[in-house]
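Re: Re: ligand-bound prediction request (bumping)

Still looking for help on this. To restate: I need the protein modeled with adenosine-5'-triphosphate bound, output as structure tokens. Inputs repeated here so nobody has to scroll up.
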Amino acid sequence: MENKARLLMVGSLGANQQNFLRAMEAKGWSIDAVVDLSRAATLLAREDYDAGLCCMHGPAEHELKELDHLITRSRMEWMALTKDHELRKPALCKALANLFMAYQVEPIDIEQIDCLMHHAVAMKRLRLEESEPPLAEGDSEFEMVGTVPAMKKVFDTIRRVASVDAPVFISGESGTGKELAARAIHERSQRASAPFVPVNCGALPSNMIQSELFGHEKGAFTGANQQKIGQIEAASGGTLFLDEIGDLPLELQVNLLRFLEEKTIQRIGALDEIEVDVRVLSATHVDLEKAVAEGRFREDLYHRLNVLQVDIPPLRERQEDIEILARFFFDRFIEEKSMNVRGFSQEALVLMRHYHWPGNIRELINRVRRALVMCDQRLIKPADLGLERRTANRNAITLEEARNSAEKEALLSALNRNKHKVKKAADELGVSRVTLYRLMEKHNLERKSEGSSSLTSA
Ligand SMILES: Nc1ncnc2c1ncn2[C@@H]1O[C@H](COP(=O)(O)OP(=O)(O)OP(=O)(O)O)[C@@H](O)[C@H]1O
Ligand SMILES: [Mg+2]
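Reply:
Sorry for the wait, this slipped through. Here it is.
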């Protein structure tokens, strides 16, 4: 290891201090020694250190809190020097266990400290190499992280499609980063300085979505007390992101198609057409080709939207990225609170690698957040993640699960095919109306008014 690694020392060894500093310098260390925590914090904010040393001689409770804050944010390993009688204080012991890589009870043993500090420096370097930003897309708020070949391909595609003004269709399971990808495309396009307007087609009732997208004139319908500019118009010059496009009711699919073909819209109740220059990106987590085959989604609209395509792989297929993403979110959230937690235990990392992640990155984010709250030690343990019970190999589903999902699938497609006419759907399925209602309830399927054209889980 190269010499002149830099140590920050907080507190003093009293009469032994000068000898200690000389001995450490003779070993090749460069040490900045400060007597109190606030000076240490100032130095840490300004300078770059490789490891820390702290004299723990009867710190007061508020000092332990400050110390916690300082160490947790320092992003390096610390060693404590303390005295035998201090070890009788529970608060001090807790701090030693949680914040420090090691501690030594005086009298000082220079050889051992030298050895431990080398170890601390090596750990910090390792961590730095590991956390080198793998591939950052965009600014920090919308940074997209990924290192595996499949994600590099996604980034490449994003860059390529960004420069073309054609519609892009983004597919991927729930929580894989479809909206983030849409933003990345917008930000890299010529439209970057104009608005990016996301609309979730699945979140609005079908009677509202028309006015949400196209706007309306004052008095166009009961309750339309004033004119409303729709989201398409609001995205003028920029990008409209139609999320959950698969949930768009059939009658609105026609209107959207017209807009894509003619580049004009008509507010509800308006007489004139307005020209709007908007690029359309769309996404869904459902299989749109299947929806087309089942008559739930217009084929012509599908081809219009799907000129260019970005497919985002599920998290379980990005094994090596799981740990990188977990640390990325750890770092992001640790900023929010000052906590003892320093990282993930090996066991927790292994668990995350083998978990199926049905909710993908969104689920990973929630698990890391939860772990930060639950963790009461230096390193996050498997239990803090709250994953165990659900870790059973999800590829091997039970027969019961398979039956259930096939049943739900059959209900959904029969109801959609029959425009929610329960009697017709029940006939087709060969069950009574009552049975069909019972099954719909079992699978949490909303009863929609007959004749309506899409069905979602309640
Ligand atoms: N590669 C990535 N790097 C960093 N953060 C990511 C990445 N992918 C997704 N995220 C984050 O994960 C969360 C979910 O992403 P996003 O909302 O884009 O997913 P989605 O595919 O649109 O999900 P849904 O289908 O549920 O709408 C967001 O907070 C997003 O910022
Ligand atoms: Mg989304």
